[in-house]
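INPUT
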Amino acid sequence: MSSVDIPREQWATRVGFIFAAVGSAVGLGNIWRFPFQVGQEGGAGFLLMYLLFIVVIGFPAMLVEFVVGRRTERNPVGALKEIGSGIWEYVGWIFIATGFVILSYYSVVAGWTIRYTILGLQDGYLADAAEAEGQFVTLASGLDAILFHAIFMAAVIAIVAVGIERGIELAVKVMVPAIIIITIGLAIYAATLPGAGEAYSYYLSPEWGVIADNWQSIVPAAAGQAFFTLSLGMGVMITYASYLGEDRNLAEDGAIIIGFDTAIAFITGLIVFPILFTAGVDPADPGAGAIFVSLAAAFGDLTLGWLIGAVFFGTVAIAALSSAISLMEVVVSYIIDERGISRPTAAIGIGGAMFLLGVPSAYDLVLLDLFDLFADQILLVLGGLLLMILVGWSLPDLAVDELQRGIGDLGSLGPAWIWAVRIPVILVLLVALVLGILDYYE
Ligand code: PFF
Ligand code: NA
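OUTPUT
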């Protein structure tokens, strides 16, 4: 059957779309990646740069993806074919490739969160740092890791296979409120810990010297993180907006989505750092696995830490699931639209392939770190950059016209948005890409 014969799916409700986008945005990026980036990049200086990039880069860029998706009602490859010609078609392919790479290792990390939820409930966590580290090495790589990577991927496939309205929309309507409520609860708990004061000042008082000395690493890390956390640069927001039937105010929706994502990342810092400081664990330990080791050791040290830890890791797993479904949906929508393959078959095939691609990361954490760095600092930024150049410089009228549907006449805000895309967004992405490439090959 060809794609024209199948009516395109749609979100049933406005909150359905917003929850799905918030569910995509809020994920491991907020609860796992964000705190370890803050730790690695020296604390509050990174936080400040990140917040700046969210507003100046993230918001205009998200609107670009929204208008492309809603205008074309297509998956990213189809969308780029429709609005761009010649080599621009291939930008959609970068999105698909990025989705593959990210979901492959994202699912491995998500698998750890399931494993660590069970660990807390079953045995509790080990307080001794060296023992916690040893345990992490056992659980996070090899067969254990592969098993939980498989379980997680199966859950993603199950939701995506059902479809937009009854699969993704229904799932996020349960998951997103749960994530928000539990995160706030954990932050209140963390405020009562003895290390909270010290943690807040580490997290919240920027040292200008640190920023000045390290901007070459802070800028690409903060730009990459801003893109990653908002699910930008790989067509998720194009895809999700393509299921919007009616015209609504995309600027308002974007602001709500960004507000939630930023709040959850920020609040996670208010959870993680007090816990680490209270247990006397150094937040600057770099690397993807470190936050698991440090947090697990910290939970091992706290009263009722097994329970708090299980709730924490369980929430991270849910957040990861609501993001992973969006990553898979990008590729699945492409297969459905362009290849006319049924949704369940597409979800199983793509999920299986992504699972296999993740197996090396499940064996070797060094590889996982490399995948993460490559996807986040290079692929995401590259795909995002090209899309911004295309829309900002050659399709400004189409973009403004589409954004106005559901808002009304934008007046001078239209050109302001386009110029934000043309200069600051593109410039920051370009600088981030160059520095990211240098960093990667270092
Ligand atoms: N935004 C998600 C997070 O912060 O965990 C991760 C993510 C999802 C990145 C989807 C990119 C993406 F396309
Ligand atoms: Na995020």
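end of record. The chain has one domain: 3-440.
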